[in-house]
Design goal:
CATH topology of the largest domain: Rossmann fold
Oligomer: single chain
Bound molecules: adenosine-5'-diphosphate, magnesium ion
Strand content: 25-35%
Strand order of the largest sheet: 6-7-8-3-9-10
Radius of gyration: 18 Å
Number of domains: 2
Number of helices: 9
CATH architecture of the largest domain: 3-Layer(aba) Sandwich
Helix content: 25-40%
CATH superfamily of the largest domain: P-loop containing nucleotide triphosphate hydrolases
Number of strands: 10
Shape: globular
């Protein structure tokens, strides 16, 4: 597969020099359920560097998606702070957050923000369109080709399979070339071969020294492809593995699940 990320759009040097691409300090998140505040995240702190690909794993309901949404600025923590690409999210207003989301931050979420009335190609170009910019000639076509969707450029999300939609979201991130990418189960709807391809693209982006990828996954093979794996349980980070293979990831996950029983 050809590389579609051009070096000309790399992040600014001062951002690259910043200590972390993503950092969280004692992040807590509560939701109002009935008359009660129910705390889902109980104080999560982490640091993810540029050039790193990090997985978050944990039993269902342990708070992985909630954490990802807080780190990505899609949810506001009830307490604690998040910094992404050198910016304190709580200091940004809605407009500044929106600008950040279409420039420095990218998302590969299964059910997140493909516009149903736009074609695949228009969805890929969206971060440019929203920023009143034009993607360089051929960029949209190249990124769709990179994810095997050349034939579906004119299709709209409602007529596409979950796996195809997932790949449109990935193509959009490849075209957008953000510094920080958040992915929630990016290979969940994909067959093995396509999943490998998507994973390979995310790895390639993450290992660019001016970028990073944070991926929530239940798949030990995906986690093993990452540099580090953070394990969550009951709204807390409880363990970390570095350079682990799929078997040790699976064993760690199974042990966490047993503690729940
Ligand atoms: P995971 O992604 O690890 O499966 P989630 O972050 O989706 O876990 O959810 C963690 C817990 O928070 C679950 O018990 C879920 O029911 C609860 N939760 C998530 N979103 C909300 C919400 N908007 N309101 C109330 N509870 C929520
Ligand atoms: Mg989830």
């Amino acid at each position: 597969m050809s590389s579609v990320v051009s070096p000309s759009l790399s992040a600014s040097p001062q951002r690259v020099a910043a200590r972390s691409a993503i950092s969280a300090h004692d992040v807590r998140k509560s939701y109002r359920v009935g008359n009660e505040d129910v705390e889902i995240l109980h104080g999560v702190s982490l640091d993810i560097g540029y050039g790193e690909m990090v997985a978050v794993m944990g039993p269902s309901g342990s708070g992985k998606s909630t954490l990802l949404y807080c780190l990505a600025g899609l949810e506001q923590p009830s307490q604690g702070g998040v910094e992404v690409a050198g910016q304190h999210l709580h200091q940004l207003n809605r407009t500044q957050l929106a600008v950040m989301r279409r420039s420095q931050v990218g998302f590969v979420f299964q059910s997140y923000n493909l516009i149903p009335t736009l074609t695949a190609a228009e969805n890929v170009a969206l971060p440019y369109t929203l920023g009143h910019r034009k993607p360089e000639a051929g960029l949209v076509e190249r990124t769709l080709a990179a994810v095997g969707l050349s034939e579906r450029a004119g299709a709209r999300p409602p007529s596409m399979s979950g796996g195809e939609q997932q790949r449109v979201a990935l193509a959009r991130v490849l075209a957008q070339q953000p510094e920080v990418i958040f992915a929630d189960e990016p290979t969940g709807a994909l067959d093995t071969r396509t999943g490998q391809m998507v994973l390979g693209e995310l790895r390639r982006i993450a290992h660019d020294p001016s970028r990073c990828v944070l991926v929530v996954t239940h798949d030990p093979a995906v986690a093993a492809a990452c540099d580090r794996v953070l394990f969550m349980r009951d709204g807390l980070l409880v363990q970390e593995l570095r350079g682990a293979d799929a078997d040790s990831v699976a064993a760690t996950l199974a042990a966490l699940g047993r503690q729940d029983a």
